[in-house]
C-alpha cells in the first residue's frame, strides 16, 4: 500500500469514527441529509445557469429555500453504469436518463428545485436517489414535502426577514429549535460562499433519521426526522442572506 493510499485510508477511517461518535452524542444516527439551497447566493456565482438567468424577485426561490437534494449517508451511484457516472461527474446532466414523474410531482419539483432547468433532478437521482429503496416518484415527493415543511417554519421566516442582512448561527439554531423542537439546531450545518467581499449563506444541510428513506416520509413530520438524527457542527457561523438579482 502506497503512502498516499495509507493517508487516504486513515482519513476515511477517522471520518467514520468521528461520524459514529457524533451520532452517539446526539442520541440518534443521521442516515439522510436534506440539502436546502439559498438560490440567490448560488446564482451570484452561477449567473449563466438557466435557473439563475431567469430568476426574479417574484419567483418562490427568491424568498424561500430551494431543494438541492435528499442524500443517503455514505452512498452514491448505486447500480449506475460507468458511462452515466462519468457523465454526471463531468456535469453533463442533460445527457443522463430522464426522470419520469407524475405531472403533479413534476410541477411541484419544478417549483421547489429551480435547478431542474439545468437537469439537477437527473443528477440527484443518478447520484443519490438510486441508493434509496424508493421510486423516483416517492424520492422526489419526499424531498418536496420536507422542503415545504422547512419553508413554513421560523427558519424560512428568519431568512425572509433578513434579506440583504447577515444572520448568525445562534439565531438560525434558535429558529430550528422553535419550529422542530429543542436540539434541532444541533443537527444542522450551514454553508457559505463568497461573492466578491461578501460572505453569503449558500445553504443548509439538515440531518434526518432513517425514516426519511421511505415513501411514508411524504407525510412525516420534519421535526421527528430531525430529532432522530445525530448532532453535527454548524459550520459557517454567519453570512448574508442574499437577495435575488446580480
From TrEMBL:
Which PROSITE patterns does the record match to this protein?
A: RNASE_T2_1, RNASE_T2_2
Which keywords, in A-to-Z order, does the entry hold? Signal
CDD domains associated with the record: RNase_T2_prok
Q: List the residue ranges forming a coiled coil, or say none.
A: none
Q: Which SUPFAM superfamilies is this protein grouped with?
A: Ribonuclease Rh-like
Q: Which InterPro entries match?
A: RNase_T2-like, RNase_T2-like_sf, RNase_T2_His_AS_1, RNase_T2_His_AS_2, RNase_T2_prok
Signal sequence region: 1-23
Checking Gene3D superfamilies in the record gives: Ribonuclease T2-like
Any one Pfam family here would be Ribonuclease_T2
Does Signal appear among the keywords? yes
Q: Does the keyword Repressor apply?
A: no
What the record says about family reads:
Belongs to the RNase T2 family.
> What name goes with this protein?
Ribonuclease
Amino acid at each position: 500500500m502506497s503512502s498516499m493510499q495509507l493517508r487516504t485510508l486513515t482519513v476515511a477511517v477517522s471520518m467514520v469514527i468521528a461520524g459514529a461518535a457524533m451520532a452517539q452524542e446526539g442520541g440518534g444516527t443521521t442516515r439522510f441529509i436534506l440539502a436546502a439551497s439559498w438560490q440567490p447566493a448560488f446564482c451570484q456565482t452561477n449567473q449563466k445557469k438557466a435557473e439563475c438567468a431567469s430568476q426574479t424577485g417574484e419567483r418562490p426561490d427568491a424568498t424561500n429555500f430551494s431543494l438541492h437534494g435528499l442524500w443517503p449517508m455514505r452512498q452514491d451511484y448505486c447500480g449506475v453504469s460507468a458511462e452515466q457516472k462519468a457523465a454526471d461527474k463531468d456535469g453533463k446532466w442533460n445527457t443522463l436518463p430522464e426522470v419520469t414523474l407524475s405531472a403533479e410531482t413534476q410541477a411541484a419539483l419544478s417549483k421547489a428545485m429551480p435547478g431542474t432547468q439545468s437537469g439537477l433532478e437527473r443528477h440527484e437521482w443518478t447520484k443519490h436517489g438510486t441508493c434509496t429503496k424508493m421510486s423516483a416518484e416517492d424520492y422526489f415527493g419526499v424531498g418536496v414535502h420536507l422542503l415545504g415543511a422547512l419553508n413554513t417554519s421560523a427558519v424560512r421566516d428568519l431568512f425572509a426577514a433578513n434579506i440583504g442582512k447577515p444572520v448568525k448561527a445562534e439565531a438560525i439554531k434558535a429558529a430550528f429549535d422553535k419550529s422542530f423542537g429543542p436540539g434541532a439546531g444541533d443537527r444542522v450545518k450551514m454553508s457559505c460562499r463568497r461573492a466578491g467581499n461578501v460572505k453569503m449563506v449558500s445553504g443548509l444541510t439538515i440531518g434526518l433519521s432513517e425514516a426519511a428513506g421511505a415513501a411514508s416520509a411524504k407525510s412525516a413530520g420534519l421535526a421527528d426526522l430531525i430529532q432522530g438524527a445525530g448532532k453535527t457542527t454548524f459550520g459557517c457561523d454567519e453570512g448574508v442572506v442574499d437577495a435575488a438579482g446580480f
